[in-house]
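lol ok so funny story. i was supposed to be doing the assay writeup but got distracted and ended up predicting the structure for this chain instead. priorities right. anyway since i did it might as well share w the group, maybe its usefull for someone
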Amino acid sequence: MQSFDHLITTRPHEVRQVLISDLHLSPEEPALVQAFLALLDDCLALPALKRLFILGDWFEVWLGDDFYLSLSDEERQIHWLTPLILKLKQLRVAGCEILVMHGNRDFLLGQPFCNLFGGELIYEPYTLTVGQKSYRLEHGDALCTDDKKYQFFRKIMRNRLTQWYLLNKSLEKRLAIADKMRKKSQQNNANKAARIMDVNDDAVLQAIADSDALLHGHTHRPAIHHATHDKKRYVLGDWRLLDKDTRQPKVSAVVGAVTGDEHSNDSFSNNNAEFRLVEFKSLT
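and the output, tada:
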């Protein structure tokens, strides 16, 4: 696996788009937050970068945009999200689009929060053109159809009426509900076979039918699979904290990158555009 740092330092003018997923950011894991800030610094150093995709589970839990928007100016100054927002805004001002997709952990994320840094909330499936090929982007949880209980839960949680009901609860009650749901999910997953929590082959074939390739996260099993003899399924990795008991823990993640001919003006669909999975590592 080629390292992301190597790609940046040797061919920075060729990197046009970066795709990440499953960061699971929270104040309880400051190393992951710092790693994301480090990635944004790397993105700012890429002169031809035009898009950053965040394909779900950006946050470990999201209680609603008012969780941050309701804060006073003084509270925002010391909040752990503020440095992320400022850095993302800097990236947007530099000309990079920031496209954010819901995951199963942050389905209450809204456009008002994305407006703080000029981002855009996108919905699955999202079609990305790379060269002459169309890539279907989604978070990935909808592909895990063998997990019947989760799919039922997902259907309920993605319902607008359910979301309206949750968002009209106080933040304290939403926090209690989220904590209860997270504990129940951990208990349920502990008793499930690993294959049940992975994607279903038939669901993949159905998803990729009208596309040339499929790209998703969610499963935390980064790899490149052959969905058919001529179509590939790319799986982004979760952001993992390595050596967390040491003085300098590391964060590792498998992310996506679209590269192109540095002499081309078309940053999205030139014939030389190529998608690849690369490894990002950060010292915190």
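The chain has a mean pLDDT of 90. The longest strand covers residues 250-259.
back to the writeup now i swear
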